[in-house]
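Sequence in, structure out.
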Amino acid sequence: MTVNDVVLAATSSAMRSYLLKRDALPPGPLVASVPVSVRLPGQEFGNQTSNIMVPLPTQLEDPVERLRVIHQQSTAAKAMHRAMGQDWIENWAALAPPPLITAAARLYCGLRLSRLHPPVINLIVSNVPGPPIPLYCAGARVVATYPMGPLIEGTGLNLTVLSQSGDLDIGVIACPDLVDDAEAITAGFVNGVEELADAADAVG
């Protein structure tokens, strides 16, 4: 398992708890858009990222089973992404001129067309590796860094995790029209990590 698997599993736990309390848990998995690094050797500057789609099995009750399924699904999604080529999204996007893409995006958002079709993804989950050493600012140690991720049309939740010196700091950004309690999701994520840690302790 990877740290990213645990982040996705804890997110699944948070979403399962959130949706159960609202009697809105779907019978199948949610789908998360997960940014992945595609930085090649020699590319030292700028963002070099793409995305994979990973099902989050919120319909499963056992947190360990959710983790196992997520590991399998994310491994398969990464393999497909590598097979298609790391820059396939950029290559497709290059077929249309930027002004046309901008105009299409504005039209899509302005007409609120996302209401007329099922969402392609339900949420964005990003795990950003940070510095493994302590950071300081003007002589004071930085004890936490809370990230802020973007929302996109039709997707009202972004959960971003940033690691720093052995800790994970979480930032949850939500559209209040779609998510009425972002703090509950944050607490659910923490509980999801704790239940996986308890399960690991029980085995070990």
